[in-house]
Design brief:
The structure is a single chain. With 183 residues, the chain is an all-alpha fold. It has a domain of 109 residues: Protein tyrosine phosphatase superfamily (Protein-Tyrosine Phosphatase, Chain A), CATH 3.90.190. Helices cover 55% and strands 0% of the residues.
């Protein structure tokens, strides 16, 4: 594949339904929403990885932990990476969450999304160390979030790979992803 890389919009299309249990942690509910409402886009993102015949593939979103974390976790599982390593990789984004949130707070696009515990937008002008620490704590990716998401896929969909198959990612496409990522 050469030329411009495909860009995949996030929330369009709908594939396999996953029930969303209100008793789950908010981040788990959020990620289940991706699987429920953006499955076609997740599959397209993974197809883009598998379609590359050379070079790297960039997967990104605003913070690189939620949408990106979900897509990358699934790609790594397709490639046969051990689940505990996938979960650890996801949680590693937490090491730089302060910098990520600072970058987002400084942009016009995402500044309104960075808020304090009461939901008030936080800007550089209103930022104090206590507020900053609270925001980073709330936004920090946690291993147990990804672990629970994968457990739910095991329980309700026959596992992440079966969920991807049901969402339309063929075994040949899964093999192409694995080949591309593992070389």
């Amino acid at each position: 594949m050469s030329g411009a890389a495909p860009q995949t919009p996030w929330m369009s299309g709908r594939r396999p339904a996953l029930e969303i249990d209100a008793g789950e942690r908010p981040a788990v509910i959020h990620y289940l929403g991706y699987l429920r409402h953006a499955s076609a886009n997740i599959v397209e993102s993974l197809r883009a990885i598998g379609a590359r015949d050379d070079g790297a593939t960039l997967v990104h979103c605003a913070a690189g932990k939620d949408r990106t974390g979900t897509v990358v976790a699934l790609a790594l599982l397709v490639a046969g990476v051990r689940r505990e390593d996938v979960v650890a990789d996801y949680a590693r984004s937490g090491e730089v969450i302060d910098k990520i949130m600072g970058r987002l707070a400084s942009t016009t696009t995402y500044a309104a999304d960075v808020s304090d515990a009461e939901g008030n937008p936080v800007t550089d002008a209103t930022m104090d160390p206590t507020t900053w620490a609270a925001i980073a704590t709330r936004q920090r990716p946690r291993a147990e979030t990804m672990q629970r998401l994968l457990e739910i896929l095991d329980e309700r969909a026959g596992g992440p790979l079966q969920w991807l198959t049901d969402a339309g990612l063929s075994s040949a496409e899964q093999q192409a992803i694995s080949t591309h990522l593992l070389g």
